[in-house]
Amino acid sequence: MARPARRDVLGDGPCTVHLIARCHNGDFLLRDELVKGMLYFLLYTYKSIFGILIHDYCFMDSHFHLVLTVPSQEALSRFTHQVLGQLARFINFKMRRKGQVFMDRCRTPVIQSGRRFLLTMRYIDKNPVRAGIVKQASAYEWSSYGYYAFGQHDDLVDPRGPRCHMNSNVPLPRRPVSAT
Question: CA-CA distance, 23 to 82, in Å (whole number)?
């Protein structure tokens, strides 16, 4: 059975999604700190160009998670095309390899309630702990956990809450999450 078109799932207006991008064959192509740094840079660069709000993120070695509010399906498509395309070229050049870097298209389930929004963020924060990379989420550098739990500055995170969570102009509360 064919997958539904993204525009049929997301609609045409703004929405909040949990974006998951996986490396081809589950390869650990994001393991290098320089690659994660480039991903951070690309996300930071293109979020303002396409009007994307990034609420939460976690970069793992074989995939990454983002919680985004997007103005339209078209903006999300162009944003992911730019970020993933440039990151793939960077990875292939750096690792002297050719071929596909990311599997298929990104998964983008829509987040439709404030409860689901917070549960998704908790799930993302616990990812490095579940993978056995760190014992506590606070020890993982490549996530937004420090921003919410400890108030650490993070240029990638947009503090304005998504429409499904609360008024979009109100900053998200710093949450004391137990992600151990």
Answer: 16
